[in-house]
Amino acid sequence: MTTDGSLIQSLRHFDPDAVDRPVAAWRVEVRNHGSEQPVHRHHKGQLVLAVHGGVTCEVPKAMWMVPPQHAVWIPGGMPHSNRATDNARIYFLFIAPDAAQMPSECCTLSISPLLRELIRYLADQAPDYPRQGATARLVAVLLEQLVAAPVEQLHLPISEHPKIRCITEALSQDAADRTTLADWAQRLAMSERSLARLVKKETGLTFGRWRQQLHLIVALHQLASGTSVQQVAGKLGYDSVTAFITMFKKALGQSPTHYFAALRQVD
């Protein structure tokens, strides 16, 4: 099924759990302005695939970025929200719990051209496609390919702890904020050592590594929406474009230009 508009308008009248098929697909074209689907949950698991623009998914304790040609898997029953960039083209794939051996935790999956085309095909079919026949056979192939899709580390661990949440919200609003761990500790009435331990306990990362991962998530979101590398580097507070590119390359193995050029080749 296909629809245009905001995420809320597009999915308001669609209940994936009411679809009596193991897999259903839905395509959304977000026109002009990015939009957000508030926190919700459903029994079926959900795959969020971006083929143009990007989507940020937030689940308890983590934020996941969906750059083009990647997807985030959200297990059934997990509360989550989705935020799309301007002019995003998104596919939602809903999968019944017993349809395939999908991961039990959220993860980012790299989507092959074959898998992407199978999802596109299914989105053009009626949700109540015949249980036997060509579409049902293609769904079986789709699930086989999806189970084998590579997992990529494109997420930001977050926490509901009030002190960590305070830092997360501040950096989300101003990613260029270079407040040091010592300054944050003073602001939060803690010792620097105690705050360092808390960040590590709640996120699994050191403060410096965690902030760098936040920069990567923000950068992917902005680059996917068409912001230039120079502008993104400035918004993230890097002293030079070269420093930003170095960070990006260390994290993803390619410069931003090469990374997105490779994604466009399969768009």
TrEMBL record:
Pfam family name, one: HTH_18
UniProtKB keywords: DNA-binding, Transcription, Transcription regulation
Keyword Transcription attached: yes
Domain (HTH araC/xylS-type): residue spans on this chain: 165-262
Keyword Transcription: yes
Highest taxon above the source species: Bacteria
Coiled-coil segments on the chain, per record: none
PANTHER family membership: HTH-TYPE TRANSCRIPTIONAL REGULATOR NIMR
Protein name stated in the entry: Helix-turn-helix transcriptional regulator
